[in-house]
Amino acid sequence: MGITVLFLDEKVNFVIHEIISAGRANHYMPSLKAGSIVKVDRFEVVRCSSMYKIIDHSFFIRFISPTIIDEVITGAPEIKLHS
């Protein structure tokens, strides 16, 4: 169990799947708001197993204990809603 997050990379216009484990969910929940734009640092990128694949991208992001999430308030890129 955990939280599934989809990140949209506006520079190359693709979606990356991310899983926050149940053990870390309470730590990151205050930083995650629907529709918000965030900067994420210190994470792992791992190959996505076809068994759990929910998007076409072959990798997903995994939050680890030093992962930091900061909401981007100023200078945020414009993300097209249809994306």
UniProtKB/TrEMBL annotation:
The protein's name: DUF223 domain-containing protein
Organism placement in taxonomy: Eukaryota, Viridiplantae, Streptophyta, Embryophyta, Tracheophyta
Domain of life: Eukaryota
